[in-house]
Amino acid sequence: MVHPGGFLEVITGPMFAGKTTELIKRIERQTFAKRKAALFKPSIDNRYSEDDVVAHNGLRYEAFVVPTNEEGVELIERITLDEGFEVIGVDEVQFFPQVIVETLNRLADEGIYVIASGLNLDFKGDPFPVTRDLLVRADNIVYLTAVCTVCGKPATRSQRLIDGKPAPRDSPIILVGSSESYEARCREHHVVP
Ligand code: ADP
Ligand code: MG
Questions:
Q1: N or C: which end of the chain has fewer CB within 10 A?
Q2: Where does ATP bind (predicted)?
């Protein structure tokens, strides 16, 4: 797609829906079109670095890694404006504080093509506020589905499993000694005890 001018695009859906793949594809296409483009992702340990964004299918692309706090959001804005990026992508946008909604919306107002990729719902099926608030401001929404691991139908939800069993609604964020995993599930097979 040609550079749309100031534009906010949101890619959303559950885990394994292909959000990161779609984000990398769009950034790469803009680069082929000679647009100055950058990808950002949140850091786990809150340090600034450079690393690749990696999709579940192995596709990767270089990115600025920024902390998931307000300084991280300021860093996205500063790097974008200082370096004169015309297109930016932000992966896992739901991990950033709420202020990122205003920041990305403002960057789009300033003529930048902003592509934000983030989870629609948490493991309980509740919206991630950052993704939700970006969706209603978006100029375009790309709503992707994964494949339900139980029945093969389109999956819109992310199932959290602790030691192979559905995670209860009140389960602690970190469970010491447990093996935790996530699966894509449809509405029928998404379970929150
Ligand atoms: P996301 O960023 O939405 O988590 P990715 O772009 O990283 O998704 O990965 C998408 C890839 O995940 C697919 O191309 C496929 O190879 C793989 N995959 C693994 N499990 C599933 C599933 N249940 N449904 C769809 N794709 C899956
Ligand atoms: Mg992803």
A1: C
A2: 13-20, 91-94
